[in-house]
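Proteins fold reproducibly. Take a tokenised chain:

. . .
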Amino acid sequence: MLKTSNTEWLQIGFRSIALPLQGTICVSNGGYHVSTSIPCKPLSALAIAHEIAAGTLSPVEALKLGEGAISAYEDQIHAFTARPDTMQPAKGLLSGIAVGIKDIFDTADMPTRHGSPIYQDNQPPADAAIVTQLKNVGATIAGKTVTTEYAWFQPGPTRNPHNLNHTPGGSSSGSAAGVAAGFFPAAIGSQTGGSVLRPAAFCGVAGYKPSFRLFPTIGMKHFAWSLDTPGVFAASVADAAFVAAACSGRDLAVNERTQTPPVIGIYRGSADDQMDNDMANAIDQMAKRAKAWGAAVRTIAGPDAVEAARNAHGPIQDYEARIALAHELRTAPDQLSPNLRAYLEQAEAITPDTYDAARRTANKARKASHDLFQTCDVLLMPSAPGAAAASLETTGDSVFNRMWTLLGVPAINVPGMVDKDGMPLGLQLVARFGRDRKLLQAAHWLETRINRDQ
């Protein structure tokens, strides 16, 4: 099943509400509860750049493209924590491209609050390195986007544009939802467990987590410094690759003219039993369709040395988070959410020896992961166990992302599939460390064929 943007109108009393075809109406406490969505019309960064280059769109006009959607839907989506008074274009490859910045990255002209009241009045004196990189190539900052508390699991106010009663994922919730809603064509987020892949999957956009340390983390609020990885959200894989290439100065842009079928390995690991039926069917369906499209497809069983990294992620994250947020826990414990405070206090039980043992396991897994790609270009697996949960009290499960984040390999969410209720399902592709361009090219190949067959 592939996604549709069709809507129908339903009259309730004297108010007309635009509902998606998959929308439901429930009677609750004598009244109506409507499962609503907004028209998701993401802006293409690549198309905007092409129009600016052709002279059919000015950078000033390009920066205004999201204004209508923001005016109409921000009060429902809650993607922003701060916005500039005006947006002015600059010269460069990303001239006219508005970029949302997750609110754990410092910005010199807007507050950086980390999703916490502790930093309510925090105004950094300088931009984070990745923000400066974006500005240096002409990007304009559209605003700061909602993060969960310190990029942990405590949900923020953001809602999923595809259904306002469903989680947008986290922790980069505002970045993913803002791209999906058409507020801005690109956004920066970060991933410690699954905080790029999962919200991208839930919101139906591309989410690219580069190889570890490909993007700088200077000026970023860390949760776990061995894991934290900046990432890019955009409407499509090609858009994400374009923005990442411009920002980093690396050869990451996909080539539209020389698309060759990749060799795809269907990864089978110990977490597979956590897929719901829709996701399991989507993986099986995609394996068959990829073969029909000309790709070589094979099954790759996760070796024990790699799978061991699943259990190493937790101790490493917990130990480092306890240190990274030690100041906040010591000086303002009452301003932490009860859940985060309890988590940090429990993390005190992680000893240096336990941490070091987990690091050794991770190092062995990284070396063993090279062999996964001897017979394939990329691995295919879920971005999340299923579609976004019908809840605003959770951000979802990162079980299919954490291991790959720990290994430091590049990963991307490929959008285009939906579940039986029409909610986005994300397919995750993973490549060998440092093979980011190969990953992006394979993901683009897959995405274009998914879209072609809609």
About this structure: DSSP finds 15 helices and 15 strands in the chain. The two ends are 9 Å apart (CA to CA). Confidence is low (pLDDT under 50) at residues 1-35. The CA atoms of residues 47 and 303 lie 42 Å apart.
